[in-house]
Amino acid sequence: MIHAKTQWIIASLDPEGEQQAAVLAKRLKLPLLVAKLLVQRGFNQTADAEAFLYGRIDRLHNPFQLKGMKEAVERILQAKEQGQRVRIYGDYDADGVSSTTLMICLFRRLEMDFDYYIPHRTLEGYGLNEKAIDLASEADVKLIVTVDTGISAVSQIAYARSVGIDVIVTDHHEPPAVLPEALALINPKQHDCPYPFKGLAGVGVAFKLAQAILGEPPVEWTDIVALGTIADLMPLQDENRILVRLGLQQLRQSDKYGFRALAEVAGIDLPAITSTNIAFGMAPRINAAGRLDHADGAIRLLTSIHEEEAMASAIALDTLNRERQQVVDNIVKEAETIWMGKCETAARMGLPEPSVVVLAGEGWNAGVVGIVASKFIEKLYKPTLVLGIDAETGMCKGSARSIEGYDLHAALTECHELLDHYGGHQAAAGMSLRRENLEAFEQRLGQLADEWLKPEDWLPKTTVDLACGIDDASLKIIEQLSLLEPFGAGNPAPKLLLRDTVVADRRVMGKEGKHLKLSLSAQGKLLDAIGFGYGPILSRISDGTEIQLVGELSLNEWNGQRKAQFMIQDIQVEHVQLVDRRGDASSLQSLHKLLSEDSFHKAVIVVPHVAWRDALRHESSVPSGMTVRTYEEFDSAEGWEWESLLLLGRPPSADKLSAIIRRCHALERVYAVYNQASWPSMQKPGASGAAKDSLRSAEPTLTADFPGREQFAQLYQTLRRVSPLAMQGSDERLATMMGWPANKIAFMLNVFAELEFTTTDGGSLSLAASPQKRELTHSASYRSGMRAAEAERILFAESESFAQWIREQQQLSISHVEEGAAVS
């Protein structure tokens, strides 16, 4: 078994929704699949669906509906007419960089006297600060226009006003209870702002200001809007969807040196760029400037008018991004150690793990702690705050990421007395506080989580848009789904549940085998599936495994060929899996390899002999906490909780293996680590050749070539011709006559002796004069041999058949448990 990482919630339509989808499909000439997805996403009216699919520039809202827009436009135009110095004040993330870039483009077109200022993340922190205002005053700046920041800068804007500087705020963050007294505040989230769309990014608000001043939407700058909107995870709905679609069109034919250079270093084919390329290729490199150095490098790139300068800036950002990745990896390792310590302390005190993850370390770069927090969310699914501590001042600056149901902004507001500064929204936030407040801060956040979150909130969920089979994973479906692009926050790419497929082939790919590639089969068709980061579970998947996958369809183009492929996001295998290593030359080496490649929880190594058990317990490669038992010890043990059975050495019998499987009600995987030579098949340990010759051991010595009734009859007829026969060497002489193995002859003679078909007298073997008619099954050796042959057939069956047998045994165990529960 492989358990899904998330709870799958499969969307479905009621009869009314099905009818609405049919109407949309007919009126808008859409594939029914696309119409169903539109209804599932809330677009069940023709006008709404048409606006979503085909919204054009004329559907943008009037920018003057934004509160404060009229005053802002008048003041900026006044500054232009009077030749006043204007300073753009931005933020250091990708949205802030994009907003600043767009405002630079606007002021260049207006031929204004202006410059820009972005604070240093580490030295100055987020938002307006008085030192920066002093610098503006010294430069004779008369007007500051903030972009993507300023909504919380109450005291700073009051200070600017006191030194003769007007401030226009353009922002999109959650407004605080007390707003700054700026000349104009433009933020659609103001409670009394009538603007119909509240989801604009900071760069979106800047775009609306440009639209208001120019009298028309500056479409040529929508590529900048697309970058900031996607990077800041704003919902791709309403205006954002229109602006991002237009921006992608601009990028596909871009002649801007900055974007062309950025695409080149990121390995992006501009004519085919998607929102995903921006999110994972462009945005991280833009963000890297502000995280590790200064965002000015990203501004220079996006505003460059010289090709060589743009390429140099792009290469510098790419280098910074690589450094950022290493810094993140280092902090993650340190943070994991701290978290493990917190959990161990809680366990010693008899307390549960903390409900909110709060991790702080000296010297941690405050520019990357948000990325670290996101990684912990993926791993633990708990609200996470990661802070860097300044060892000299004791100030902590950090970022937070949250889960559904836990509003970070609301939580930080509840803790405001412990904080020096905070801002953000439900899913992400930033804050600063003093070191001595950390413990109380962590406790309060945890209390809020326990109060606000219900048990189901702690389970990550994946909403699946559609359940389908391999026939549906086609180029035609991909083309249909592309009507819903661009994809991103608020309009994710459709997630599919791929059912009724089996694994035809599997392998790892990429550096250090981190990624998984499966070849899936169903109805005679094949489909490739790629799972980034899933490489480590390769050993837990076998050929023939029935598998369910959640993910997205994508187009794979290679050497002029186009085919569909499935991008895996979650995996589930509902049956017990066989990891088959029976063909390996060395069982012990196979075991070592498995232990090094896979992680085992509630696992037991089962061996046929006490000597093997004792040897393994001293093996350095076997984890100290892993149990090693013989089959006999297992019979008397409570084995209900084992999830993994590692069978080292051939099991003594199929019956013994079946008994163990049936006792393991929680069994998920069986690792068969044995071969034909890994354990003597049926001979009694220590029995000498002479003893076997004289006693015809009751244990059969063959399994693979078990004789049938016809062969027993042939041997009997031969004995009628040649008996009496000297006992000494009779096996070999008869084997030569019959052309059969000597051990097979020995076994058959042993059966005849038990049935009293033969007699031995004076060292001779003869047929009984008047034998009583008996069935072969009356012989204990024959019955034992049949069981051994059946065991051999099972234990060395073809992989798929052996796996099916294991599942049948486990199903018997499950049925037994369910029957017992029903009776009780």
Describe this entry's structure for a reader.
The protein is elongated. The longest helix is centred in the middle third of the chain and has 42 residues. A hairpin with a 2-residue loop joins strand 25 and strand 26. Helix 8 packs antiparallel against helix 9. The protein is of the alpha/beta class. The protein has 28 helices and 26 strands.
Features:
alpha/beta; inorganic pyrophosphatase (n-terminal core); Diaminopimelate Epimerase, Chain A, domain 1; five-stranded parallel sheet; five-stranded mixed sheet; 43% helix; exonuclease
CATH topology of the largest domain: inorganic pyrophosphatase (n-terminal core)
Question: Poorly predicted ranges (pLDDT <50, ≥5 residues)?
Answer: 679-701, 814-824
Overall mean pLDDT stands at: 88
Kindly provide the radius of gyration, computed on alpha-carbon positions and rounded to a whole number of angstroms.
37 Å
What's the number of extended β-strand segments? Answer: 26
- Seen as an oligomer or otherwise, the chain set is single chain
Main sheet: strands, sense, barrel? 5 strands, parallel
Q: How many individual helices?
A: 28
Query: Distance between termini?
Result: 28 Å
